Amino acid sequence: MLKKIFYYGRENNKKTVLSIFLLVIAIFCQTATFLFVYQIIDKIVKNDLITPNFMLFCAAGILISLILQTVFYKKGLDLSHEAAYGTLMNLRISLQGKLEKLPLGVIESKGIGTLKKVFVDDIDSLELLLAHGIPEGVSNLLGIIVIYIFLIFIDWKLALLAAVTIPLGLIAVMLMYSTGSSRMADYYKSGQIMNNTIIEYVNGMEVVKVFNKSGEYYEKFRRSIINYRDFTLSWYKACWPLMAVYGAVLPCTLMANLPVGSWMVIRGYAGLSEYILVLCLSLSLGVPLLRVTSFMSMIPQVRYKIEELEKLLDNPPLKERECEFTGKDYEIKYEDVSFGYDEKEVLHHINLVIRPDTKTAFVGESGSGKSTLAKLLVHYYDVKEGTISIGNQNICDMSLRVLNNLVSYVSQDNFLFNMSLMENIRIGKPEATDDEVIEAARKAQCTEFIEKLPDGFYTLAGDCGNQLSGGEKQRITLARAILKNAPIIVLDEATAFADSENEAKIEAVLTEFVKGKTLIVIAHRLSTVTNADQIYVLKNGEVIEHGTHQDLLHLQGTYKHLWEAHQRSLEWQIAREAKK
Ligand code: ADP
Ligand code: MG
Q1: Residue to substitute in 346, 348, 373, 491 for testing ligand 1 pocket (most ligand atoms within 8 angstroms of CB)
Q2: At 321, is the secondary structure helix, strand, or coil?
Q3: Tell me: the pLDDT tens digits for 429-445?
Q4: What is the pTM of this model?
């Protein structure tokens, strides 16, 4: 684990080492105060003459030692904090780099709560270990070892007596670790569940209220909080008694030394002076001993956190190479493509060819795999088997940047950043002028509703988040795609939210816009795909029918059923509108 920390520490490691060195000196300064005390006691016991000068010398010595201890301690901790924050920065940057390489879909599935906890809370909690745990732990340990070696030189028997509390205290510490570690996973898991539930609860507040589910969701929320409290308490309860034991026993270095040592002195097995020196020095061991153990108790926690961090980022990164696009045209080919989000496969052996400059539709029931098929084309995930190519070049060979320039994907879950609508659309083409942005917005039928907003194009997406309907958000992402003007356009139920009037308008714009481009539409309303050059019908992750609208109707199969259902729903809609 330390290796890992040093790996992320890099340029900060020198500071860490220096801080340990300074902290060791601080410990010796503390020990020095006890040595001055020893000088005085030794003289008193031996009935030697104590001159005022001598007293003054000792008092000054103690004072200077204490001041030096403070100075070195502070300087040491300054350095260790600098090193710690530097290391955390490196850690976050390198995690961010890894996160960026993860398939987008994997990130989505982790949940914001978990990611936030790892990125912010867990990494922050490493600070304690880096700034205090390692430097103080190591320096105190070194200090203790040096002092014990010193004690052994003075009188090995007395030194042994001073060390008796260590095994006793360590037994308690070990017991505490083993109880703590076994519960740690549960404890952290309950924390994560609580985090995710809170975020889910807050995000879903609107839905929860509309559907009168407050009670149910509140209950889930409450249960996760209670659960967390119970786990934390049970963890601490198991550890507290042992903590008390080691806290009491470990620093009590005089426990054996005082009775047995004085007996040894009386019997002449040890010298009085040595005895007093050992007593004084072992008194100086109490604080370092406690520090070492309290920092040791951090180690399992930190190890757990680092493991979790790495597990999170252990997903294989996206297969991505850096080639430019070298295809001669924009023909899209799926060859024997299979894919699953987890073990369960959701797409099986898909084969399809999409000629450039044509309109292709994916249709099928909800859950049949249409969106997944589209997401694979924009490389949200790696395929499990088979290849997807554009112009005969495997998309895995291109960098995401290159692929993104080829394909515009308007997803079902439209995502707006919290910046102005102008900037949100401009993402499609960062160098676009305001006029170009407004023109794209106009084409996507956005102008009307945007102009109604208080600040028009300069309204922040977050501020109008609740004012914009799903259809309006989708049209903004559509404007983004229009502005981007990529040769391949994928629209995932892009008009699903639009009412029929708007839909007709958008359709008209699209027909104009996609001239000379390859268009893939995923459509719920089949009336929008009757003019497609080819239609792929999906069912349970397989292509079961393929052809033009007319071909498919003749087949009398699934498409025919879908089409009839669609006709009925249209009739129903017309009948309902007529009633109004
Ligand atoms: P469609 O767009 O046709 O409605 P999808 O492609 O969204 O279907 O989904 C196909 C299958 O994959 C469904 O069974 C769905 O439950 C599953 N699925 C979709 N997204 C995920 C995901 N992020 N993690 C796990 N399973 C998913
Ligand atoms: Mg879908």
Answers
A1: 346
A2: coil
A3: 889 999 999 999 988 88
A4: 0.65
